[in-house]
Amino acid sequence: MLLLLDEKKYIEINQDIFFALGFPRILTTGETQRSQSSDPEFATISPTKTMENIQKKLIGILEDIVYNIAKRNKFKGVPDVSFSKINLNKLEDFTAAWVELYGTGNISRDTFVEAFGYDFTEEINKRKDEEDYMEELGVPSFPAVPFSPQPESPNSDPDKTTKSPKKPDKTDK
Predict the structure, then answer these.
(1) Residue 143: pLDDT band by 50, 70, 90 thresholds?
(2) CA geometry: angle 113, 85, 114, nearest 5 deg
(3) Which of 50, 62, 60 shows the shortest CA–CA distance to 18?
(4) pLDDT over 90 percentage in the chain
(5) How far is CA 21 from CA 9, 15, 28, 41, 137, in A?
(6) Residue 88: per-residue pLDDT
(7) How much is the average pLDDT of 152-171?
(8) Over 50: is that where the pLDDT of 36 sits?
(9) What value does the mean pLDDT of the chain take?
(10) Do residues 15 and 21 touch, judged by C-beta distance below 8 A?
(11) Which of 38, 44, 92, 147 is least enclosed by beta carbons within 10 angstroms?
C-alpha cells in the first residue's frame, strides 16, 4: 500500500506530462530543476502556445456539439463558441497595463471590466440598485475619509447657501 502512495514513483511520469504540454518546472515549483532560477514570464510562452493550439483543435468539436444541441432543440440561432484569451501574466503587470489603457481612453469601460471577468451592464445595474437601497436607508454612498469634501445630501439645494449666525463683534456694543 505504501508503494502506491510514494511520491517518488510519479516524478518521471509527471515530468513527462509537463514536458509534453510544454510546461516548465518553474510554473509549478517556482524554480528550474538545475539552476533554480529563470524568468517565469518567459517560461509561460511555450505553455500558452500549446494551450492555444489545443483550444483551436477543441473549438471545432465544441461548435459541432453546440450546433447539434441547437438543432435538436429547435433554437432560433446557434450560440457562438469561443475561448477567452489565456492570461499567464503577473497580476500586478496585467492590472497596471489595463489601468493605463483605460486611463488614457484607449479602451471602453465594458472592455476594462471584461478583462477582469465582469459584465459591465450587470455591474452598473448592481451599482444602481445599491445606490437606491443606500439612499432609501439614508446611508451615505461612500464613507467619509479624512480631509475629503463632504458630499451633498440628495435633498439639499445647492442654490441655498446657509450661513452660520454672525458672532457679535466686540465693536458692536
Answers:
(1) confident
(2) 10
(3) 50
(4) 29
(5) 20, 10, 13, 17, 55
(6) 67
(7) 53
(8) no
(9) 77
(10) no
(11) 147
Q: Which residues contact 150 (CB under 8 A, 6 or more apart)?
A: 144
**Unique residue bearing C-alpha cell 435538436:** 72
Give the torsion through C-alpha atoms of 39, 42, 46, 47, to 10 deg. Answer: 60
> Residue 168 to residues 161, 164, 171, 172, 173: CA-CA distances in angstroms?
21, 12, 8, 7, 9
Spatial contact of 79 and 70, defined as CB atoms under 8 Å apart: yes
Q: Hey, what amino acid is at 156? A: S
